[in-house]
Design a protein that fits this description.
The complex is a heterodimer. By secondary structure, chain A is mostly beta strands. Chain A has a single domain, classed as Beta Barrel (OB fold (Dihydrolipoamide Acetyltransferase, E2P)), CATH 2.40.50.220. Chain A contains one helix and six strands; from the N terminus they run E-E-E-E-H-E-E. In chain A, a hairpin with a 5-residue loop joins strand 2 and strand 3. Chain B has a single domain, classed as OB fold (Dihydrolipoamide Acetyltransferase, E2P) (Beta Barrel). In chain B, a hairpin with a 5-residue loop joins strand 3 and strand 4. By secondary structure, chain B is mainly beta. The chains are: A mainly beta, B mainly beta. Strand 6 of chain A pairs antiparallel with strand 1 of chain B, so a sheet runs across the interface.
Chain lengths: 92, 94
């Protein structure tokens, strides 16, 4: 999984039923100190995140089926945790 | 699998229910000699790793193949604490 900041909400009216009642956000991966680390991607929210939150994103093939028992659900990246704090010591 | 060094902990109270009681450790990727690389990963600890531990991280769907992570939406799990790396054969670069 990776750390990311929630940038924007993605709204879509025409979408696969697996996405009903779920929101999708644009997230940008960040370094632990908050500096953007590059690629942005879309992630399905599972925990009630909002724009500006620091979150933990990730997901592997089969997550939707095996973890959330949704069959045939085209979901790859999930927002799975909202970060309170990161206690870390990094060396340059 | 990748080598990594545990540099900290990610604290989260609002998270997916399948992550309750799991330790989310912040790891910096390293090479086999422990030289740190510019890539960070959040991984669930399955072997009692702590800050400073030199570890092996398994990522992708295989990360769900441990008792600790089998129902969790994780894609990275710390599954080994590395004591030593022995190079038994060096293949010269072409």
């Amino acid at each position: 999984m990776y750390l990311a900041r929630v940038i924007k909400k993605v709204t879509a009216t025409q979408k696969h039923r697996a996405y009903d009642a779920k929101s999708v956000f644009l997230v940008q991966s960040i370094y632990p100190d908050g500096v953007p680390a590059g690629e942005e991607s879309a992630a399905m929210d599972y925990v009630g995140a909002s724009v500006g939150d620091i979150v933990v994103c990730g997901g592997a093939p089969g997550t939707a089926q095996s973890v959330f028992n949704l069959d045939k659900a085209p979901i790859r990246t999930l927002i799975m945790a909202i970060v309170d704090t990161i206690d870390y010591r990094d060396t340059q | 699998m990748i080598f990594g060094k545990v540099i900290g902990t990610v604290v989260s109270t609002v998270k997916d229910v399948n992550l309750n009681g799991k330790k989310l450790l912040l790891c910096r990727e390293a090479d086999h000699e422990g030289t740190l690389l510019q890539s960070y990963h959040v991984a669930v600890d399955a072997v009692g790793a702590g800050e400073g531990s030199f570890v092996l991280i398994s990522y992708g769907s295989s990360a769900r193949m441990t008792e600790e992570t089998k129902n969790a939406p994780v894609d990275a799990v710390i599954m080994a604490l590395i004591d030593d790396v022995q190079i038994t054969h060096v293949i010269p670069r072409p």
